[in-house]
Amino acid sequence: GAVVSQHPSWVICKSGTSVKIECRSLDFQATTMFWYRQFPKQSLMLMATSNEGSKATYEQGVEKDKFLINHASLTLSTLTVTSAHPEDSSFYICSARAGGLAGRETQYFGPGTRLLVL
Amino acid sequence: GQQLNQSPQSMFIQEGEDVSMNCTSSSIFNTWLWYKQDPGEGPVLLIALYKAGELTSNGRLTAQFGITRKDSFLNISASIPSDVGIYFCAGRSSGTYKYIFGTGTRLKVLA
């Protein structure tokens, strides 16, 4: 159980185009999902918290108009990188919050999406 | 963004040896999670800790929630080549769903 998928697993696009990445919780419902960005040999940096049915909450320094997040259902969140530029090239990983007993929640990650902007 | 101090940063060990790594925070946490990440993959959850002093095992892995609630430890016994990867800790304070991640420990196992 607790499987999170991401699609696509990798994408190459031209500068100026937009790219959409999907994150799905396959066997559980997730009211909250998270989007991270990871540079080579570095840790995960939280970009935004995606809440089902409401606006995403962005971390300081993350442009909300650049990284559009939509959490339309309890199993799907999407991240759209608008007008992508080479500096947006990175490894993007989503995670889904899985609640258990009170206070015993955890977070499961998707396999990641590698974006290369030419 | 904020990150947790994780040590060691990297380690080379011989197959069969035990491994210890730790994570420290300036804040008190209610939950500690430990993950392993292979190259090009997303992190995989290894162990979740929810109570100060809690000691939890998952096969050859054992993790502990520090008594001060500001640190956590992960031990791997009798390491094998497939233990190679990057290990991340993550901590969460009360009142938030967000986790803060450690800087990672890169483990390499020599056969």
Can you describe this structure?
The complex is a heterodimer of chains A (118) and B (111). Chain A starts with a strand and ends with a strand. The mean pLDDT of chain A is 93. Chain A is built from no helices and 11 strands. By secondary structure, chain A is mainly beta. In chain A, strands 2, 4, 5, 6, 9, 10 and 11 form a 7-stranded mixed beta sheet that branches. Chain A is globular and about 45 Å long. Chain A has strands at residues 4-7, 10-13, 19-25, 32-38, 44-51, 57-58, 67-73, 76-81, 90-98, 106-109, 113-117. Chain B is an all-beta fold and 111 residues long. Helices cover 0% and strands 52% of the residues of chain B. Chain B has no helices and 11 strands. Chain B has strands at 5-7, 10-14, 19-24, 31-37, 44-49, 55-58, 61-65, 71-76, 85-92, 100-101, 105-110. In chain B, the strands form 2 sheets. In chain B, strands 2, 4, 5, 9, 10 and 11 form a 6-stranded mixed beta sheet that branches. A 5-stranded antiparallel beta sheet of chain B has the order 1-3-8-7-6, with no helix packed on it. At the A-B interface, strand 5, strand 9 and strand 10 of A face strand 4 and strand 5 of B.
Layout: helices, strands, pairs:
The complex is a heterodimer of chains A (118) and B (111).
Chain A: E1 4-7, E2 10-13, E3 19-25, E4 32-38, E5 44-51, E6 57-58, E7 67-73, E8 76-81, E9 90-98, E10 106-109, E11 113-117
Parallel strand pairs in A: 2-11
Antiparallel strand pairs in A: 1-3, 3-8, 4-5, 4-9, 5-6, 7-8, 9-10, 9-11
Chain B: E1 5-7, E2 10-14, E3 19-24, E4 31-37, E5 44-49, E6 55-58, E7 61-65, E8 71-76, E9 85-92, E10 100-101, E11 105-110
Parallel strand pairs in B: 2-11
Antiparallel strand pairs in B: 1-3, 3-8, 4-5, 4-9, 6-7, 7-8, 9-10, 9-11
